[in-house]
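REVIEWER CHECKLIST
Item 1: Sequence provided? yes
Item 2: Single chain? yes
Item 3: Sequence as submitted:
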Amino acid sequence: MFEILSQGGPLLYVIALCGIIAILVFLERALHLHRARIRSEDFLNGIFNNIRRGNIDEALTLCSETAGPVASLMKTAILHRHDAATNLRSALDDIGRAELMRMERRLVVITAIAQITPLLGLLGTVAAMIRALLIMNLQAPLVPMGDLSHWLMQALVTTAAGLSVAIPSYAAFHFLANRVERIVIDMERASTEIMGFVTGTDAANASPATTETQHETNVSNT
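Item 4: Structure as written out by the authors:
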């Protein structure tokens, strides 16, 4: 296998570097999103109980010590609990957008690698085929097969390498995007519960139209 890869030419090293970067970014993002997702219902119930008892400082401490966007939303709501409902909603929307940007950070790197590496493989293939054709023109009609096979092998290796990096990168991006989407859904539910608790309204008793409007507002703002 190493002997085959060694015939890939200089572009193979560029493709390999892209693959290493994609792996590192994927591992970092996967770990970050794993930490960001918590049991939001249990967490919110614990915070709500502390607030009902008047333990505001303890509630803030729990929010600060808990990772994830839901904890950030809860902390923001506590700090703005005396504000008007519109101001509280605006504060939650702002922190929600900030948390979404934080979760999506560096995902564009994986997308770029998934798009670039097949093109790098194609470039290596075209360059190798050009060299093979030049050899055929210069040494025709008797062309040594060894010279041609070297460049043909390089063409195939670079194409295979580009696809070998691009396909897992696409899969990794969609995996991470799905994790982000699940966390966003948790954020939307938590935001509705937090608004209902802080403003003194019960989201569960809200009319279906109101609940649907709140969900659409959260999706568009997030």
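Item 5: Key structural point noted by reviewer: Residues 202-222 have pLDDT under 50 and may be disordered.
Item 6: Recommendation: ____
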